[in-house]
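Format is chain and fold; as here:
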Amino acid sequence: MVPRKRIPPGVKVFDTMNARAESVGEKRSFSGAWNRLQLCLIPCESFYEPNYETGKPVRWKIGMESGEPLAIAGLWRAWEEPEGPLSLSLTMLTVNANELP
């Protein structure tokens, strides 16, 4: 949601690819887009998430068993560029798995 080139010098780089659904309206990185209802669907064939069952992050591919495309709920934001058109960024809305911490 916040492109790395938009993070000011001296500020710790932070990842905004996922926005937790239960706190999206409270987090500064996401609340503006959330309050403006800048909702979107992110089409994909699959995506990867880390699985920590072994104690180390192991990439797991997640997708439809049939291989068909799917869509992920998300938020979008437009950024004005000094030279040229607007650029867009997005974040995926995520929820915690019920039985996993």
Summary: The chain has a mean pLDDT of 88. The first strand starts at residue 18 and ends at 20. The chain is about 10% helix and 40% strand.
